Amino acid sequence: MQFDPQTLVYDANGLIPAIAQDAADGTVLMMAWMTRDAVMRTLETGRVTYWSRSRQSFWVKGESSGHVQELVEMRVDCDRDALLVLVRQTGPACHTNRRSCFYTALRDGHEVEIMAPEPG
């Protein structure tokens, strides 16, 4: 069956959440938003492209930082309202210079930092 991005369920702002996961080891790296055009650009170029809500523009991951996300596979959830983007990540995925944006765990009612920033 041919993929049609119009069949995805976008929110009132035309956005769909996209979770980036390391294709090699399964680490959940980050969550960001995509528009229909960002989905298509990602599929066409192989470079993961998100929609920046703050800048109201496309954001190709790694364009300025060099921390590129190369698309391995895109998956659609059962309700078609979220995406899983399996990637080959170069460098840290998080703007805090950590491998993952999910570096804070909630343990016994406390926040615990479980991942330090990468040197550099």
TrEMBL record:
Cofactor info, note text: Binds 1 zinc ion per subunit.
Catalytic activity, EC: 3.5.4.19
Reactions catalysed according to its record: 1-(5-phospho-beta-D-ribosyl)-5'-AMP + H2O = 1-(5-phospho-beta-D-ribosyl)-5-[(5-phospho-beta-D-ribosylamino)methylideneamino]imidazole-4-carboxamide; 1-(5-phospho-beta-D-ribosyl)-ATP + H2O = 1-(5-phospho-beta-D-ribosyl)-5'-AMP + diphosphate + H(+)
A Pfam family: PRA-CH
Cofactor(s) it depends on: Zn(2+); Mg(2+)
InterPro entries documented for this protein: PRA-CH (IPR026660), PRib_AMP_CycHydrolase_dom (IPR002496), PRib_AMP_CycHydrolase_sf (IPR038019)
Any one GO BP annotation for this protein: L-histidine biosynthetic process
Coiled coil: none
Segments forming domain Phosphoribosyl-AMP cyclohydrolase: 30-103
GO cellular component: cytoplasm
Keywords recorded for this protein, A-Z: Amino-acid biosynthesis, Cytoplasm, Histidine biosynthesis, Hydrolase, Magnesium, Metal-binding, Zinc
Subunit structure: Homodimer.
Protein name, per record: Phosphoribosyl-AMP cyclohydrolase
Organism: Roseivivax isoporae LMG 25204
Organism lineage string: Bacteria, Pseudomonadati, Pseudomonadota, Alphaproteobacteria, Rhodobacterales
